């Protein structure tokens, strides 16, 4: 795939001082700067709790698409839920992706890279049983019913909030930029993409292995099933959470100030009516 990025414009936004970003007139989505990664996690946990409380008060369900990364906000969310006795019985959770083995088959829940296993442990596990999300309201993508989550989202009247991390090259869930020279995926194709099974890109394997298993890439399952961008962007609110330092400095500035491109799928969020990035200072320092 040939790049369409204008290097001069890219370098310009990569040199902007942090303190010029929040009020920059060229922002494509809303931006909230906090000081530390811990502040990012606390903000996300509180935002999640407040949304459930608002909907509970008005007698409305809460419907989320959630990532398995970042995850440090989830124990904080559980603390708030348990402390304030927030009822999650009317919360519906759609998990955005799952890793698959080299044959495109499910991995065991106790595998270090099982997203379902991680979410059961770190998201649902710490919440009091009497407050927890009912089992039949937890939806994980399945190779055996590839459009199942999309059907359920439609049945429930849509998604309230997509909470998402963002990858090195701008992927949301595993909606990565296509690298093959043998076929073309347009921006419109990506915008309307559905749940699908794919091989993950090499840079994602490197990132996952470096952060989680000391660079042992053979531990990282090479395939995935992911919700498509159409479901991600259908939510009424879109909240990006970034907290991992230098690895993300360029992509976040492209999200905020760059042009839309297939090379950075998250830039499709620039079309969204209520999209916001919440990030700590170190993670969005000038990369140049």
Layout of helices and strands:
Blueprint: H1 7-14, E1 30-34, H2 37-57, E2 62-66, H3 73-84, E3 91-95, E4 97-100, H4 115-124, E5 138-139, H5 148-155, E6 161-164, H6 187-191, E7 196-199, H7 202-212, E8 223-226, H8 229-233, E9 237-242, H9 249-257, E10 275-280
Parallel strand pairs: 1-10, 2-3, 2-6, 3-5, 6-9, 9-10
Antiparallel strand pairs: 4-8, 7-8
Helix pairs in contact: 2-3
- What is the total tally of β strands? 10
* Global geometry: globular
- Average pLDDT number: 96
Major beta sheet, strand line-up: 1-10-9-6-2-3-5
**Oligomer status:** single chain
Classify the helix fraction into a percent range: 25-40%
List the helices and strands in order: HEHEHEEHEHEHEHEHEHE
Rg (C-alpha, Å): 18 Å
Report the structural category. Answer: alpha/beta
Euclidean distance between termini CA atoms: 25 Å
- Beta-strand fraction estimate: 15-25%
Given as residue ranges, the uncertain stretches (5+ residues, pLDDT < 50) are none
DSSP helical segment count: 9
Q: Describe the biggest sheet?
A: 7 strands, parallel
Structure in words:
By secondary structure, the protein is α/β, with parallel strands linked by helices. The protein is 31% helix and 16% strand. The chain is built from nine helices and ten strands. It has helices at 7-14, 37-57, 73-84, 115-124, 148-155, 187-191, 202-212, 229-233, 249-257, and strands spanning 30-34, 62-66, 91-95, 97-100, 138-139, 161-164, 196-199, 223-226, 237-242, 275-280. The strands form two sheets. It has a seven-stranded parallel β-sheet with strand order 1-10-9-6-2-3-5, covered by helices on one side. The protein has a three-stranded antiparallel β-sheet with strand order 4-8-7, with no helix packed on it. Helix 2 (37-57) crosses helix 3. The radius of gyration is 18 Å and the shape is globular. The model has no long low-confidence stretch (mean pLDDT 96).
């Amino acid at each position: 795939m040939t790049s369409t990025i204008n290097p001069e414009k890219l370098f310009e936004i990569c040199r902007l001082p942090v303190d010029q970003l929040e009020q920059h007139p060229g922002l494509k989505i809303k931006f909230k700067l906090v000081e530390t990664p811990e502040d990012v996690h606390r903000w996300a946990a509180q935002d999640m709790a407040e949304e459930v409380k608002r909907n509970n008060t008005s007698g409305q369900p809460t419907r989320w698409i959630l990532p398995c990364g970042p995850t440090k906000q989830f124990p904080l969310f559980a603390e708030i839920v348990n402390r304030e006795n927030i009822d999650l019985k009317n919360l519906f959770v759609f998990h955005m992706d799952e890793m698959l083995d080299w044959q495109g088959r499910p991995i065991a829940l106790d595998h270090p890279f099982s997203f379902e296993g991680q979410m059961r442990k770190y998201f649902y596990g710490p919440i009091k049983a009497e407050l927890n999300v009912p089992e039949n309201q937890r939806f994980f993508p399945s190779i055996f019913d590839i459009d199942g989550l999309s059907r359920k989202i439609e049945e429930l009247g849509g998604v309230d909030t997509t909470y998402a991390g963002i990858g090195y090259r701008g992927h949301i869930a595993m909606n990565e930029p296509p690298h093959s020279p043998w076929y073309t995926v347009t921006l419109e194709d990506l915008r309307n993409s559905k749940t699908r099974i794919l091989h993950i890109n090499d840079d994602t394997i490197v990132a996952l292995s470096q952060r989680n298993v000391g660079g042992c890439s053979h531990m990282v399952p090479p395939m995935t099933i992911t919700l498509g961008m159409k479901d991600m962007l259908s939510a009424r609110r879109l909240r990006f959470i970034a907290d991992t330092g230098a690895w993300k400095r360029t992509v976040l500035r492209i999200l905020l100030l760059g042009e839309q491109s297939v090379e950075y799928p998250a830039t499709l969020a620039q079309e969204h009516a209520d999209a916001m990035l919440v990030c700590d200072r170190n993670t969005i320092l000038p990369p140049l």
